[in-house]
Design goal:
By secondary structure, the protein is mainly alpha-helical. Helix content is 66%, strand content 6%. The protein contains 6 helices and 2 strands, in the order ααααββαα. The protein has a two-stranded antiparallel sheet. Strand 1 and strand 2 form a beta hairpin.
Amino acid sequence: MRSTGNEGSGYWYGPDGQLDYGAAVLKSLRDYRTAETAVRRSTRDSMGMGETDILALRYLLRVQASGKTVVPKDISQFLGITSASTTSLIDRLVASGHVRREAHPTDRRSVVVVPTVESDKEVRVTLGAMHRQMMSVAEGLTAEEARVVVKFLERMTEALQQAQHDEK
């Protein structure tokens, strides 16, 4: 690992001068999160959308790609927002041309929310290069490296979920 200039601070290095790997890993996770947040902000700005709108649109595109339909309640559950907030969100996405409401194929009382072809293209153009670069990094891992990373991230996810559960 490269010198960070913090060797004497005890923050990344223990009292014996040895690298504190746990702290270094957490710093790397924070650095990744900071970079990801900056990219998301840039994407939101370039698309003229808020974070929740982007999350909803990506969800809709992912579900559509799997051949399934999405009703407003699905969006509410995915985002953890109220039905009133979901209606406002869908109204914004319809007004911006990113989605349209269509009659539900089997339930006449319901509608499905469908991303437009244009929004799919816009997301692909806006996020495509970043996703290709990230996939290249992930595909460059050996099977053992990938296993270790996946296991680590699963354990970190569990730790965060447990911490959230303990707060309640």
